[in-house]
């Protein structure tokens, strides 16, 4: 394949950090893991699965005869809630704290495994009383509070299927999702606390169900978090606390087939309506449990783990609700935003609970970096021993800041690549084994097979960027798109015969480390050279002026596409940076120097904010509209829709070149 069909990637990273001897000595994951998985991949996964409690043991590992529809451990039976709760209580760990809950207003609760089990059993009985049965769908629309965990676990416990809809989504999104899944029950709250205010949730549910829009819904179960006034529909709405108090605390978890559906989670595709990604039970729990333990080096008897993701996203499902509880971890759940009451909130939580493992997203890290090190430095963060990153490439500068400032200059960072569709982590360093390289997710985990192909499907060598594929089925893989098997095949399995196409660009560097280069639809073609948005962003952020950057390709008469960059400046650098025109020149030269003149942005827009989805992903599609001077597309999933007005106003004010 010729060079002009490759994604250009010219950024070089030379720093290395080997694990410290002390860490290696106590590490959960040992190098043998790689050898075992290599020698017998399916046997390796069977070993991991056997660490769970099976009501009926499996004898078959994988059935791939109906590819791409996989069955894992499919003649076995298990109960996911039993694995996450009862088995820890039975093992004598009922008094261990499962959840340290920190409400945004400052209220806190410690919930032990015994207490959580009691709550989930009661909730399971409430659901049964409401007529929810195996296979029925339940929509959950709640803030980040322990009851959301209880709700998910209770639905799973009785073999129903949850569809969690992120609390920041609108009534319309809720209607679409409830309707697509034909949910029988909605579990919600009156509201929740965010940015110092009691926000309402129940009105969105009422609106979503109004006018007979969702006839499948029979009841709404409401937990009162804020005690604000709510509209109440007699006969339909039930009070969570009253119902649980009246319910029996006895509930025996029965085993379900390993392929019993567990949840649907909607994720936006590049176009079209949201896809209901379907996950099932045995394989999903096997891989979330295994990755949570090995990637984060979890020692459940002493670690305090905190994943900042909301349960409305896949990270909250796999690394708040299922992986950690299955491993008997003690975890922190925080309701609110990082800036309430001030930007020190996260670090005061780390200090208060002595958090030892922190898992968050690069966008959060860059926000903190933008404000400077002095805020985290006011807190004792010495308990932190492992840091995790997920959701987008973490650029080396943010990686270094995360390690130095949050990780006391020594905590290993696990940059974990995965997707809603993969269900669990697929590519990541293992902290007691891997010599870390800032910015790279590094290696496929033991048991996972990754390749990088060119567009014709030919495997690429080192230093050639192409398309990331997964070549062998894995236990926590999606089993389909709810109600649309053809879309499943078309989206993920049609590009390369027999291989899962992840939609991401990637390369192996000269040492065999995997670098994720962003979604392939975020790839630009400038004068026949493909450039990764992620790489140019990384170059921009490596300049001391820049806190955050987003790059898009805009149509250009001469070059096909041209690079347009949107940057947020670090507050401490505003004076030094000078006028926007000065900044633009300096940064264009900087990119030219870091990557090469081909990558030099045509325009650089200095902005105060970037449009982001509620999960923190930059919406490049909208930026592309601005850069190409088109009307702005649908912005309903933006955190702050006014951001776009500001940006388009700015660009309309003239290019700064
Ligand atoms: C991106 C989130 C680079 C990637 C768990 C993927 C990443 C998409 C990383 C899935 C990472 C996630 N490095 N890119 N460590 N982690 N991504 O479904 O483009 O919300 O395809 O799942 O996020 O996003 P999703």
Automatic annotation (TrEMBL):
<feature type="binding site">
    <location>
        <begin position="391"/>
        <end position="393"/>
    </location>
    <ligand>
        <name>ATP</name>
    </ligand>
</feature>
<comment type="similarity">
    <text>Belongs to the ATP-dependent AMP-binding enzyme family.</text>
</comment>
<feature type="binding site">
    <location>
        <position position="315"/>
    </location>
    <ligand>
        <name>CoA</name>
    </ligand>
</feature>
<feature type="binding site">
    <location>
        <position position="527"/>
    </location>
    <ligand>
        <name>CoA</name>
    </ligand>
</feature>
<dbReference type="GO" id="GO:0016208">
    <property type="term" value="F:AMP binding"/>
</dbReference>
<feature type="binding site">
    <location>
        <position position="519"/>
    </location>
    <ligand>
        <name>ATP</name>
    </ligand>
</feature>
<feature type="binding site">
    <location>
        <position position="530"/>
    </location>
    <ligand>
        <name>ATP</name>
    </ligand>
</feature>
<feature type="modified residue" description="N6-acetyllysine">
    <location>
        <position position="617"/>
    </location>
</feature>
<feature type="binding site">
    <location>
        <position position="504"/>
    </location>
    <ligand>
        <name>ATP</name>
    </ligand>
</feature>
<feature type="binding site">
    <location>
        <begin position="415"/>
        <end position="420"/>
    </location>
    <ligand>
        <name>ATP</name>
    </ligand>
</feature>
<dbReference type="Pfam" id="PF00501">
    <property type="entry name" value="AMP-binding"/>
</dbReference>
<dbReference type="InterPro" id="IPR020845">
    <property type="entry name" value="AMP-binding_CS"/>
</dbReference>
<keyword id="KW-0547">Nucleotide-binding</keyword>
<keyword id="KW-0067">ATP-binding</keyword>
<protein>
    <recommendedName>
        <fullName>Acetyl-coenzyme A synthetase</fullName>
        <ecNumber>6.2.1.1</ecNumber>
    </recommendedName>
</protein>
<dbReference type="Pfam" id="PF16177">
    <property type="entry name" value="ACAS_N"/>
</dbReference>
<dbReference type="InterPro" id="IPR032387">
    <property type="entry name" value="ACAS_N"/>
</dbReference>
<feature type="binding site">
    <location>
        <position position="541"/>
    </location>
    <ligand>
        <name>Mg(2+)</name>
    </ligand>
</feature>
<dbReference type="InterPro" id="IPR045851">
    <property type="entry name" value="AMP-bd_C_sf"/>
</dbReference>
<feature type="binding site">
    <location>
        <begin position="194"/>
        <end position="197"/>
    </location>
    <ligand>
        <name>CoA</name>
    </ligand>
</feature>
<feature type="binding site">
    <location>
        <position position="546"/>
    </location>
    <ligand>
        <name>Mg(2+)</name>
    </ligand>
</feature>
<feature type="domain" description="AMP-dependent synthetase/ligase">
    <location>
        <begin position="90"/>
        <end position="482"/>
    </location>
</feature>
<feature type="binding site">
    <location>
        <position position="543"/>
    </location>
    <ligand>
        <name>Mg(2+)</name>
    </ligand>
</feature>
<comment type="function">
    <text>Catalyzes the conversion of acetate into acetyl-CoA (AcCoA), an essential intermediate at the junction of anabolic and catabolic pathways. AcsA undergoes a two-step reaction. In the first half reaction, AcsA combines acetate with ATP to form acetyl-adenylate (AcAMP) intermediate. In the second half reaction, it can then transfer the acetyl group from AcAMP to the sulfhydryl group of CoA, forming the product AcCoA.</text>
</comment>
<dbReference type="GO" id="GO:0005829">
    <property type="term" value="C:cytosol"/>
</dbReference>
<keyword id="KW-0479">Metal-binding</keyword>
<dbReference type="GO" id="GO:0003987">
    <property type="term" value="F:acetate-CoA ligase activity"/>
</dbReference>
<dbReference type="Pfam" id="PF13193">
    <property type="entry name" value="AMP-binding_C"/>
</dbReference>
<keyword id="KW-0460">Magnesium</keyword>
<dbReference type="InterPro" id="IPR042099">
    <property type="entry name" value="ANL_N_sf"/>
</dbReference>
<feature type="domain" description="Acetyl-coenzyme A synthetase N-terminal">
    <location>
        <begin position="32"/>
        <end position="84"/>
    </location>
</feature>
<keyword id="KW-0007">Acetylation</keyword>
<dbReference type="GO" id="GO:0019427">
    <property type="term" value="P:acetyl-CoA biosynthetic process from acetate"/>
</dbReference>
<dbReference type="GO" id="GO:0005524">
    <property type="term" value="F:ATP binding"/>
</dbReference>
<keyword id="KW-0436">Ligase</keyword>
<dbReference type="GO" id="GO:0046872">
    <property type="term" value="F:metal ion binding"/>
</dbReference>
<feature type="domain" description="AMP-binding enzyme C-terminal">
    <location>
        <begin position="535"/>
        <end position="617"/>
    </location>
</feature>
<dbReference type="InterPro" id="IPR025110">
    <property type="entry name" value="AMP-bd_C"/>
</dbReference>
<dbReference type="InterPro" id="IPR011904">
    <property type="entry name" value="Ac_CoA_lig"/>
</dbReference>
<dbReference type="InterPro" id="IPR000873">
    <property type="entry name" value="AMP-dep_synth/lig_dom"/>
</dbReference>
């Amino acid at each position: 394949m010729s060079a002009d069909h490759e994604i250009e990637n010219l950024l070089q990273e030379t720093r290395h950090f080997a694990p410290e001897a002390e860490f290696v000595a106590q590490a959960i994951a040992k190098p043998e893991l790689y050898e075992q998985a290599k020698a017998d991949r399916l046997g390796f996964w069977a070993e991991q699965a056997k660490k769970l409690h099976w009501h009926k043991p499996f004898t078959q590992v994988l059935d791939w005869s109906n590819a791409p529809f996989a069955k894992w451990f499919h003649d076995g039976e298990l109960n996911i809630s039993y694995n996450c709760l009862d088995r820890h209580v039975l093992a004598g760990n009922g008094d261990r704290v499962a959840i340290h809950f920190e409400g945004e207003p400052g209220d806190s609760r410690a919930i032990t495994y015994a207490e959580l089990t009691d709550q989930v059993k009661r909730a399971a009985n409430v659901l049964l009383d409401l007529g929810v049965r195996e296979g029925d769908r339940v929509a959950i629309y709640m803030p980040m509070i322990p009851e959301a965990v209880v709700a998910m676990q209770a639905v799973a416990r009785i073999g129903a299927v949850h569809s969690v809809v992120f609390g920041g989504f609108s009534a319309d999104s809720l209607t679409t999702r409830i309707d697509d899944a034909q949910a029988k029950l909605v579990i919600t709250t009156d509201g929740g606390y965010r940015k110092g205010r009691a926000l309402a949730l129940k009105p969105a549910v009422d609106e979503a169900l109004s006018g007979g829009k969702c006839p499948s819904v029979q009841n709404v179960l409401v937990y009162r978090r804020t005690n604000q006034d709510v509209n109440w529909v007699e006969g339909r709405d039930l009070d969570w606390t009253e119902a649980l108090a009246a319910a029996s605390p006895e509930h025996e978890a029965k085993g379900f087939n390993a392929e019993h559906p567990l949840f649907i989670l909607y994720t936006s595709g590049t176009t079209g309506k949201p896809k209901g990604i379907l996950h099932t039970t045995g394989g999903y729990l096997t891989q979330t449990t295994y990755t949570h333990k090995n990637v984060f080096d979890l020692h459940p008897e002493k670690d305090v783990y905190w994943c900042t993701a909301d349960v409305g996203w896949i990270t909250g499902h796999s690394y708040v609700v299922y992986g950690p509880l299955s491993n008997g971890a003690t975890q922190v759940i925080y309701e609110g935003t990082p800036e309430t009451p001030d930007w020190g909130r996260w670090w005061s939580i780390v200090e208060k609970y002595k958090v030892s493992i922190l898992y968050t997203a690069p966008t959060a890290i860059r926000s903190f970096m933008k404000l400077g090190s002095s805020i985290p430095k006011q807190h004792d963060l010495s308990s932190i021993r492992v840091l995790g990153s997920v959701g987008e490439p973490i650029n080396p500068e943010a990686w270094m800041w995360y390690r130095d400032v949050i990780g006391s200059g020594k905590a290993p960072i696990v940059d974990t690549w995965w997707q809603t569709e993969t269900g669990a982590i697929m590519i990541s360093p293992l902290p007691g084994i891997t010599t870390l390289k800032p910015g790279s997710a590094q290696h496929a985990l033991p048991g996972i097979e990754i390749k990088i192909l060119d567009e014709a499907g030919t495997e690429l060598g080192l230093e050639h960027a192409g398309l990331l594929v997964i070549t062998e089925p894995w236990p926590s893989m999606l089993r389909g798109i709810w109600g649309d098997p053809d879309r499943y095949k078309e989206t993920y399995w049609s590009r390369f015969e027999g291989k899962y196409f992840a939609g991401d660009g990637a390369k192996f560097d000269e040492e065999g480390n995997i670098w994720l280069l962003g979604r392939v639809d975020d790839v630009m073609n400038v004068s026949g050279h493909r450039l990764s948005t992620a790489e140019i962003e990384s170059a921009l952020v490596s300049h001391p002026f820049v806190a955050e950057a987003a790059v898009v390709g805009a149509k250009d008469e001469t070059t096909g596409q041209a690079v347009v960059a949107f940057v947020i400046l670090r507050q401490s650098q505003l004076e030094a940076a000078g006028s926007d025109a000065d900044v633009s020149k300096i940064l264009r030269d900087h990119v030219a120097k870091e990557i090469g003149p081909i990558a030099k942005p045509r325009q650089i827009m200095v902005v105060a904010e970037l449009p982001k989805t509620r999960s923190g992903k930059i919406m490049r599609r909208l930026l592309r509209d601005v850069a190409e001077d088109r009307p702005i597309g649908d912005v309903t999933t933006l955190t702050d829709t006014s951001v776009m007005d500001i940006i388009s106003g700015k660009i309309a004010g003239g290019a700064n070149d």
